[in-house]
Amino acid sequence: MSAGRWTLLYIVAARLLLALSLIGESLKEDHQLASPLNAYPRLREGTYLFNHGISPYSGGTFRHSPLFLPFFSWLPDSPYLNASLWTLVDCISAWALVSIWNARSGGVRSRGVLLASMYLINPYLFLPSLATSTASFDNALLLLAIKFACERRTPPCLFSLAFASQLSLPSILLLPPILLLLLSDAKSHLASPKSFSTSYSAVAPVVLEFFAYFATLTGAATIATGGWSWAANTWGAGLILPDLTPNPGLWWYFFTEMFDHFRPFFLMVFSMHLLIYVAPVCIKFQHDPLYATFILVGLIAMFKPYPTLADAGLFLTMFTLFPETYRYLRYPIVTALLHLHAFLLLPLFHHLWVGAGTGNANFFYASSLVFGVANGGAILDAIWAGLRIAVGEVGEDYAVMQE
Amino acid sequence: MDQEQPPEIKHKHISSLYFQQPSVRRSILIASWIVILLGVPLWWFTTAIERLPLPSTARLAFWSTDKLEARAGGRDGYTVEVVHGLDHPVVKSRHLSVPVHEAVARLPDLLLPLVYPYAAGYRRGGLEHLVAQYAPRYKLAFTLLNEDAAAGKAITGWDIHRSIQRHISPVLHRVSALHNFTIESQVHFHSPLAFEPVLANFEDGPIYGLTQDDLKVFVNSAEWSLASQVSNDPVLHFIVFVPSPSHTPLRILDNNNNLTTANAFILPQWGGIVVTNQPSDAPASHSFSADDLDGVFATFRKQLLILLGVSELPLEYELADTLISDWQLDTLYRRRATENIASSRETLESIVKLVDQIPNMPVGEDVNGDFQVALAALEDVAFTLYSFAAYHACSDSPELTLQNSARAVTHASRAFFSPGMLALLYFPPEHTYAVYTPLFFPLMGPLVATALREFAAWRKEGKQRPTNAGDEQKVKID
Amino acid sequence: MHIHALIILASLIGINSATPTQEEEYHESLTLRPLRDGKVATHFAFTTLIRGAVPRAPHSLADDDVSQHYTLFPLALGQILREYAITELHLNLNAGQWDYDRWGQPGEPAVGSGAELWVWMGDGAPTSVDARWKGTQNALAGLFCTSLGGMDAQRTTSPTRAFPPAGNLPRLSAPHTHRLRHASLPAESVCTENLTPFLKLLPCPVQAGVAALLNPHRLFDADWHGLGIDVRWIAGKGVELRMTVQAVFDPVRMSSEGKRDWTLRSLFGRVIPRACPVASSSRITVDLPADGGFVLLPDPSEIYPTSVAFNLARGMEELDISMHWSQEVRFSYPLDLTSTPISAISVDRTLKGASQTHGDLALVLRNNLHTPQRVLYLETLPWYIELYLHTLSVECGHSRPYELFGNLTYTPPVPHGSPTLLQAELILPPHERVRVAARFRKSFLRYTEHPPDAQRGWDLPPAVLVPEQGARARVYTRAVLVDLATPDFSMPYNVIIMTCTLAALVFGFVFNMLTRKFVVVYVGEKKEGDARALERVERSPSKEM
After folding, report:
1. Could you list the residue range(s) of the whole structural domain that residue A121 is in?
2. Is A276 within 8 Å of B36 when comparing Cβ atoms?
3. Which long-range contacts does C496-499 make (Cβ < 8 Å, 24+ apart)?
4. Of B96, B170, C276, C306, which has fewest CB within 10 angstroms of its CB?
């Protein structure tokens, strides 16, 4: 095997050893790594109730999709098994990322190893996996969907996307760019934009197929739990926000401090806010749908109701798929430092607030704002770079601006 | 990407970039605006305060209740008969028999107390202020209070059931068109007075006297628990007070501290009290039988009639009816109906004024429904009074008027006191602006600016297109 | 025709006439029990029985009630019971923590601190059981000047296994049954303004009978005190009302020499002036301590092996009972009390954990008898404590957990809705300590849901252990305080502004980037003095074409 492959193997082994050493046990319900929709103890509570005949959705603890229940009620609750399973899921995600790169670049293999190791050692992705948060599953399914779309294999792509939407509803907003990706190709066209040409007759069957898979999975979930109460607890949680557990996102403190009279209105506004980005980004980047997907992954990671570090981690790792944009990034150092800043502050202030009791909620809120600014900066820089490539080089005496 | 390339060649390059085309820009703008416009009805839906419109009460201003007072009731009206051999007027149902010698001289004076007893100058002693406020349901609370049962001569029970049947139930039946009644009773064995009655020596020996001032504070609400508080109906209390041996005999004194023969008094709009002194040879404990209570309940009956507002016939009249003549009932119906109509009009007008003054006050379906029922009931009353067909109405017209007016006043006060009317009283509009501005002001900025710019560009394009029609299009706009 | 007239006549009489006066009986009793640690446990019981009475049927709430005539039974309470068609009512207001190990079993079992209210009501009325439950709370809160309004849906449960009816339940037409509603407010206090209306409900309050001893100054100074109201229906007898006052006094603390001698005057500050004229029986029982050496005055009416009784006869003069230990100079506190418990079960419940996100609930039970005991464990947790049932563990020295724990009923909590209800059977081996532990998660509340004193914490109602002997021997644990994370209360507009600014900024920049055009601008130095040096190179597309 080549040196690259050995490196990869060492990295995977190191990860596995770290996971097996059970240092992740104390991280299981860390608020940065696991949200109420993702946390492992809640999953175990749900399967326990399910196994003992109590509906897991009759209370408010279990907010995972019912599709987890059959598998995890069969799987015994062993930390070693979990460590291996989560490492396996991360390896699948890394493999999907490498396949995406191959589809995009036509097989520059050496870079593939770099990508895989970036994914595996990124702390934003590694820590949630140590904490056995099901955010790793969400990421894996999304990357698989994008991979299959790049390879133009429609049924697996749509099925993975439908599954990912079942687990985390905002992922359904990635349907338009993945659709565009399926109907064109993944190669880099950032430098030469042109309009997206296809006939509607090609689009409609794909959309229908997606919704067929989605409906089937919904039906399976309903049959597994014997009722519709799961929808209000899982998808409804992102729309109504019954659980105000702190997370690195922007929703929780806003709705903790919101007056009751305006609560339904602002819940509606924040959900619409996610929606408003989909069409413009897809229209502007119709020449390179993979880039559009990348931008939307970042926007969803920043503005979704219950984000974790893993969502931002996926966005940052996908930066590695677009090396052509690096020279046009305007402030990558600032963004990187902001992310480092946020990564250090978030756990510190969280501990000061709820652990030591010497800080208050504003500390953690401020650090989540820093995280938001870091994410926002990264997204804006990515959009600028993706558009700027098309203009190309200009002379030393010239600068490119927007008016 | 040659640096020496002249800038002119880049013009083509940049403007030919697909995503720089106006069509792309415009479709992005339109897509964003569609989402915004989709949100507007949802905004309305999630923040609207339910304010159902209240019907107009303007119609009520045009009619007055004077006509109500003037109407005579009864299928056949009232009859007066001059009869020989009578020495005093006899009242029976709606019929007055007048003795001959008074027929000519005093007929109007004789009719006045029957037809309009509330005229100024008639009421002797001014008993108007004693009448309790109208309510469709009353609770009658009968209480037997022993001042100190442990001191001896205690009354341990009473035959309340039979006494009520004998004395009170007939009255309740008679006024059943006006009110419903629930009855409750209790016995207390330790009810101290809050003050010490004065000890005075009179011809009969030492007497404990209650001065007129003492009567005002007689009811010791702090230590006596008199009626249950479960429902909202007003309560009329009837108390039998048995003084302890250390305060026997307890008598009422008049304004000049002379002994009176009265042993009972009314507290205005509250109820009546009878003081029963035990004879010195009473046993240590016994219970009152219905016969023992006859005098007490006869007093209670008179007090109840006064509290209900039944007008009194002058002493010279003989009542051949049981208890209350139809003349008195009719005047009572008219009196109560007038009060109710005035009160419900005032309440409805207050509701309208309040709702207009406070824009944030929600008006729910219950308030709206009650308001409409009250208004409809008032209009029924107006119909009964003003329509010619009803002028010769059947005999239960005063009762019908009364029932409509009762319905009006009940629903109007229920609407006025509805708890839902206070929800948003303290959310000023400035706070609303403070909540909306941070998000929408910066959000709308680029959207509106871009929309205006694109609109201006589109208009300009439209004007120029006829002039450029011949030019060759170098770049296809998809 | 005749029959119709007769029926109408009979119903007219029936509507306005009351039910014939029912026989009412009133008994009062006081039990004084000197305890091993020098304290005296007192228990007043005032029982009123209406013979032949039946609770109001729920379906009759649609019509008016018949007239209610009471002599000894309090009217205020009677009207509440009839207004809401309550079959059984139990209200307790207690302050302090009953120490089962030192004081044994109390006279009335409901000694959980704070306010506890549970009622059995039949359904089938025009209004729902929950609406009547709310009405009952409000009516009792008004009657006793106590705030029971906090017993809303977030604290109400229906633990039918732990709180079976204390009396009988009249049969209802199928499919209606009786429902239980139970709620507990551990933070409620009891004071004079609750005692005054309580005393007003008694036939002979302050001046006569046993109730004359209830002096609020001394009663609320006691180490533990509580008021209780229990109404139940006994088939064949009638409706029984039991009003109880319990207090544990400490004569050693009161006396200047540290002696445990007591008299009625030293405990209550009063003596019994005279007997109540309307009480069928009025009785004071004094339990005799196991170790002798005391003198009891005056001579009692009845003498039994372990207790004596005084009957208050009508027309008696003042009565003051005294018990003194003439041989003792000073009371010496026995040091072996907790190692020789006199209760069947000892229980302790604690919360562990310093974080505001998670904690552990630990319950330690000790069986003090020689035989194994089966107890029912009832736990009601408010919704902001989310128990992880899969972490519930039971351990005892040698037995395996599944042998100790069984028959679990669990209702998960609904956020902002209803509390957790856990009922399970535990088998306690003799003289063994059993530990039950579970992990829980603390929720984060909305800004408007925190009370004004948010830093105090939230009360968890006491857990209840019901042994096999029945609900009358039940044991209450401590009420514990749980600390939840609070947001900053001064921040609503600040948060709105900051978060909305960030969102609007990102949206603004993204939108501008997506809709604006690139231009290439010449930023170099002027060449050849060219005037067009800084001219814009890119002209607008319309001219371009």
Report:
1. 3-231+246-402
2. yes
3. C496/A254, C496/A257, C496/A258, C496/B434, C496/B435, C496/B438, C496/B439, C497/B438, C498/A369, C499/A250, C499/A253, C499/A254, C499/A369
4. C306
Q: Over the stretch A285-331, which tens digit does the pLDDT of each residue have?
A: 988 899 999 999 999 999 999 999 999 999 999 999 999 899 999 99
B75 vs C292: CA distance, rounded Å? 90
Is C534 an 8 Å CB contact of chain A? no
Tell if the CB–CB gap between A253 and C513 is shorter than 8 Å: no
- Backbone phi, psi, residue B48, to 5°: -70, 140
Q: pLDDT for C310-368, tens place per residue?
A: 998 877 778 899 999 888 888 888 888 777 778 889 999 999 988 899 999 999 999 98
Å from A230 to nearest chain C CA?
Answer: 13
High-pLDDT (> 90) share of chain C, %: 56
B477: left (phi over 0), alpha (psi -120 to 50) or beta: beta
Report CA torsion sign: A71, A74, A77, A83. negative
Q: Who contacts A224 (Cβ-Cβ below 8 Å, separation ≥6)?
A: A66, A67, A69, A70
Say yes or no for a CB contact (<8 Å) between B187 and C70: yes
A358 interface with C at CB cutoff 8 Å = no
B206-247 pLDDT, tens digit per residue, is 888 888 888 888 888 778 888 777 888 889 999 999 998 888
On whether residue A238 sits in a domain, the answer given is: no
pTM of the model: 0.86
Report whether B271 contacts B303 (CB < 8 A): yes
C384 with C420: CB under 8 angstroms? no
Three-state secondary-structure class, residue B303: helix
CA distance C129 to C120: 10
Q: Which residues pair with C520 in a beta bridge?
A: A400
Contact present, C25 and C49 (Cβ < 8 Å): yes
Residue A164 lies in a domain: yes
Maximum mean pLDDT: which of A51-65, A161-175, C192-206: A161-175
CB contact under 8 A, B18 and A259: no
Nearest-by-CA chain B residue for A400: B14
**Residue B273 scores a pLDDT above 70:** yes
Q: Residue with structure tokens 């020098």?
A: C38
Number of domain units in chain A: 1
Digit-coded pLDDT (tens) for B14-65: 666 777 788 888 889 999 999 999 988 988 888 777 777 777 766 666 555 5
| Closest C-alpha among A354, A376, A380 to residue A365 | A354
Indicate if the pLDDT at residue B67 is higher than 60.
no
Comparing CA positions, the residue from C283, A329, B45 lying closest to residue A316 is A329
Q: Do A261 and B424 touch (CB under 8 A)?
A: yes
ipTM associated with this complex:
0.93
Q: How far is CA B66 from the centre of its chain?
A: 22
Which helix (H) or strand (E) element contains residue C245? strand C238-249
- Among the partner-chain residues A253, A353, A380, the one whose CB lies closest to the CB of C495 is A253
Tell me, yes or no, whether A158 lies in a domain. Answer: yes
Which pLDDT belongs to residue A246?
Answer: 94
Q: What is the largest CA-CA distance in chain B?
A: 141
A391 assigned to some structural domain: yes
Please calculate the CA angle B104-B109-B113 and round it to the nearest 5 degrees.
140
Q: Do B28 and A391 touch (CB under 8 A)?
A: no
Give the integer Cα–Cα distance in Å for A306 and A315.
16
Site from C488, C493, C532 to mutate, A interface, most A CB atoms within 10 angstroms: C488
Q: Which residue from C minimizes the CA distance to A284?
A: C514
Q: Which of C214, C227, C246, C238 is nearest to C44 (CA)?
A: C246
Cβ neighbours of residue A115 closer than 8 Å, sequence gap 6 or more? A94, A97, A98, A101, A317, A320, A321
